[in-house]
Amino acid sequence: MNVIATIGLGANLNDPAAQVEYALAELDRLPATKLLARSSLYASAPVGYVDQPDFINAVAQVETCLAPRALLLALLDIEHRHGRERSFRNAPRTLDLDLLLYGDAHFHEDGLTLPHPRMHERGFVLLPLLEIAPGTVIPGRGRAADWLAACADQSVVVVTSATSQPRPPLHGESVPPIPPAAAVNA
């Protein structure tokens, strides 16, 4: 069964915009998954641990046959290949992929809560989400647009515009490469 899943993307290390763009291309290459829409790139101030660079964020929607846990594991694998380290909560990161919505699923199990439990509190999620899916309803919370006013004090600005189409490959490549480990860990 095909389901529309919504994924939040963020990065603030090692060319964050490129990290997010590479990850968007990788989402389209996941098994039984097709990238349907992607937002513009947004810049946002860090949340929690503030002594770090600003983030580049985006939101994507995919159509997938993967179960929620399988999709989450695929997202974690992409993060790992981009050099993601989990040194402490809200630490700087090369790439962060969050499974925000999985159809209208509303459940909690070990390591996976849907919808994402804090998505309605984050302007860097809501603004790009509403760009590509303005009528989004967050299961158990209501319309995503209704939560935006509560995020008005957060600094979130568009840095690049995008159509709701997957981006073309970089430099004529059919498959953009993952940044080398040396560059990721530099």
Main beta-sheet annotation: 6 strands, antiparallel
Domain unit count? 1
Helix-strand pattern, N to C? EHEEEHEEEHEEEH
CATH class: Alpha Beta
Percent in helix: 10-25%
Distance between the termini: 42 Å
Query: What is the 3D shape?
Result: globular
Structural class: alpha+beta
Helix tally?
4
What is the residue-averaged pLDDT? Answer: 86
Under CATH, the homologous superfamily reads 7,8-Dihydro-6-hydroxymethylpterin-pyrophosphokinase HPPK
What fraction of residues sit in β-strands? 25-35%
- CATH domain fold name: Alpha-Beta Plaits
From the 3D coordinates, which CATH architecture would you assign?
A: 2-Layer Sandwich
Radius of gyration: 15 Å
Number of strands: 10
Question: Could you list the spans in which at least 5 consecutive residues all have pLDDT below 50?
Answer: 164-186
Model description:
By secondary structure, the protein is an alpha+beta fold. The protein has a single domain, classed as Alpha-Beta Plaits. 22% of the residues lie in helices and 27% in strands. The chain has helices at residues 16-28, 68-81, 123-132, 181-184, and strands at 3-11, 33-38, 41-44, 55-64, 96-102, 107-109, 112-114, 137-138, 142-143, 156-160. The termini are far apart.
Write the layout of secondary structure elements.
Layout: E1 3-11, H1 16-28, E2 33-38, E3 41-44, E4 55-64, H2 68-81, E5 96-102, E6 107-109, E7 112-114, H3 123-132, E8 137-138, E9 142-143, E10 156-160, H4 181-184
Antiparallel strand pairs: 1-4, 1-5, 2-4, 3-4, 3-10, 6-7, 8-9
